[in-house]
Inverse folding.
């Protein structure tokens, strides 16, 4: 079945089974491999993208449910919050192996878009669904604080 | 030894079968106790927690990942219910879904409460979302998230009986005076 998807501002016609997870359409059909597969059951956060601006585990949504909603992946992420997070991530040298980091960045940007000056608890509650096997959590939290500070004023 | 009228935990006794209870108060109490098999089932209590974190599975384990009620029952900024839960069950990922997946308000916590306490809570507009008894029954009979309890997918145990039988029990309870079990 053919679906017309808006991904990172571009329209893509994809011919896939309706039950295919959005994640696999992004990675295998469209070729955007920045979004990672971790668990396939919405437990790890590696596959996080934005759907109409809100964070979504793309492994847990069938492509048939996307409709006309816009999808933004790590490759298409932009804006003030995204740039602040990118700078903070580089400055703090946040990633270790890096596998989970596109999901971490998506969730961090989602948080900062909604909460301009997040507390430690705000950060923990937003990021708890993004697992990092290298345990970079302390740097992630610090980098989010740095990004929030850089966005002040 | 099983009672003659006892039904298996997975079923509900039909509301009409309570008509043999002549005393209205006793009938209302018995009807509500039968309906409470649904109210106290994990499919329902898991999202009526006493704290801010929902539960999951028949063992009612804390929800993983760690999520919270948030300001509006839909989670915390950056990790809302819709981050993972779509409009319908998605068997590929074993993630359940509904059009408005969310936690019940804290005032409607059922976890750890007795049947009598839940009954009083359901009737109290200050705790039930300012609903009349008719609105409570309508919610229990027609709300899509309530109905999900009988169609949970993913090998989850459904709530006992059927949604229609549950609604009939509550209607008959209301008709009998909506009396609550003691305690």
């Amino acid at each position: 079945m053919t679906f017309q998807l808006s991904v990172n501002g571009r329209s893509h016609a994809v011919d896939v089974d309706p039950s295919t997870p959005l994640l696999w359409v992004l990675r295998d059909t469209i070729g955007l491999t920045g979004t990672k597969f971790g668990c396939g059951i919405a437990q790890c956060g590696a596959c996080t993208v934005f759907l109409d601006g809100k964070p979504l585990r793309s492994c847990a949504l069938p492509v048939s449910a996307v409709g006309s909603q816009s999808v933004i992946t790590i490759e298409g992420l932009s804006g003030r919050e995204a740039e602040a997070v990118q700078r903070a991530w580089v400055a703090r040298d946040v990633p270790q192996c890096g596998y989970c980091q596109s999901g971490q960045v998506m969730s961090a940007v989602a948080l900062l878009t909604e909460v301009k000056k997040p507390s430690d608890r705000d950060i923990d509650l937003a990021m708890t669904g993004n697992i990092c096997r290298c345990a970079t959590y302390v740097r992630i939290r610090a980098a989010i604080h740095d990004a929030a500070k850089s966005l002040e004023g | 030894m099983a009672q003659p009228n006892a039904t298996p935990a997975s079923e509900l006794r039909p509301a009409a079968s309570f008509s043999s209870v002549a005393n209205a108060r006793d009938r209302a109490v018995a009807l509500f106790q039968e309906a409470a098999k649904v109210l106290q089932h994990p499919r329902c209590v898991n999202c009526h927690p006493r704290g801010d974190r929902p539960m999951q599975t028949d063992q009612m384990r804390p929800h993983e990942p760690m999520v919270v009620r948030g300001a509006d029952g839909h989670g915390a900024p950056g990790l809302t219910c819709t981050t993972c839960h779509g409009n319908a069950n998605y068997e590929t990922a074993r993630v359940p879904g509904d059009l408005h997946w969310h936690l019940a308000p804290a005032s409607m916590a059922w976890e750890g409460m007795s049947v009598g306490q839940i009954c009083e809570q359901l009737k109290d507009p200050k705790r039930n979302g300012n609903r009349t008894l008719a609105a409570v029954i309508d919610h229990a009979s027609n709300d899509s998230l309530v109905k999900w309890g009988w169609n949970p997918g993913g090998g989850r145990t459904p709530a006992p009986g059927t949604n229609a039988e549950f609604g009939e029990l509550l209607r008959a309870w209301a008709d009998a005076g909506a009396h609550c079990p003691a305690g």
